[in-house]
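ok so I'm stuck.
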Amino acid sequence: MAQHTLDRDTLKQTGLMVSLFLVTLLIRFPFFNVPMISDEGGYAYVAYFWGKNFQPYVDIPFDRLQGIFIIYKLIFILIGESIFAIRFAASLYTAATAWIIFIFSKHLFSSIAAGLVSAMTFIVFVTAPGIEGFTANGELFAILPLTWAAFLTWKQNWFWAGVLSGIALTIKPIGISGYILAFLWLFSDRKSRDFIRLSLGFVIAPLLCVLHGYLIDWQAFRYSFIENRLVSASPITFSLEDQFASLSISVVQVLPVILPLMTITLIVLINRPKKEQLFFLSWFVSSIIGMSIGGNWFQHYFVQLIPLLTITCGRILLFKNHQFVKAYYSLLIFSSIFFLFSEIPYWFYEPKKISKNLYGRMAYLYSEQAGEYVRQNSEPDEKIFVAFSEAQIYFYAKRQASIPVFYHLQLISYRYGYDAIVEQISAGIPSMVVYCRPPPEIYATWHEFRSILLDSGYVPVKQFGHQITVYSKEPVEPSLAMD
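replied:
not stuck anymore, here's the structure
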């Protein structure tokens, strides 16, 4: 009898996992072919060249630890290099996170139904275009170990909570929030042994990354991850006024996604034990601290809030009436209307329309074509420069960047990056320059930069849409084979 019960439970668990996987694919499928964005392109670029006689930080400078690149490299090996493959892999990852949400919610509320509702709600809201949740961005990969770490923190498994937070840190700097949550939760007990367990677990994965950086080239690693990160994107880079302005704009943009979930969380937690209230408050505070590390407040940063705001959703099914229930439910219905009207239509748009409406960056629509053109008309050992954004073109072109400036924000933060670009172009180092976006206004206008290109012997050879123009140093030979 015990064996039959075990088999039945195993089948039920397997069925639930498969169901979550299928629902995740169904919800995220409309976004699989939305054009690649620049963040995905940057990660894909590093992952592609890592191992092809090139090393990260030395030959491919980038201000991230190795975790996110390892994930992308595994995607390339196991599934493929297309944007469809990358987003499909992100869906598998999301399904795994949904399973953790299910386990956590079921544990809190002692209800399988509550766990399922929480997991299903997570799948829908974490995919929302308003927070760029459909992309394979760093936050989406970091929230799996972070959510698991939060669950283990709740269960007071300090060492493994630390290990998972450390893994999240190697994927995205927001991983520090997992350690902060556990630290806050431990603070009231002041048990030194638990602090030691937590800290020992936390440093394992980052130390492995630092060791790898030391073995390949410590100076290059330190510059790429520490110095460059602090200069280009950190709280010390931007003024408090700029950070507040960025936060205000993003809050307005993500409100249709976040407001319904925060409403449910308030409805649920107001009637829960004080311990749960304090835990979720600590989780929220630690997440906000983690999000602030970037020094800016992009919409995809808010992906980190989705797990903690959806775990409570399942409890709404078991909610009993009290004097405030009508007011809360009225607010929930009102806030959900925003989500229905602002987010749901995206599920029915064709991929290019999603990209155009969401980002307004026409270069996204033609990046793959531009990259293919460059690849067909240049040699594998030649370097190119993409001005002044759109890292995904490097990945599609399968060509190395002549200078590791992948994003417009990097240039705004330090002048010498633009000066180095001009110096390289004047010397004719990149065989092709793909123009996508004007330089920062503080340095030059588009016409001034174009004059530098023409004076250096570059000529326009191909245009894609109205935003991408390919300039070549040498005459383009149609006979060049595609590598």
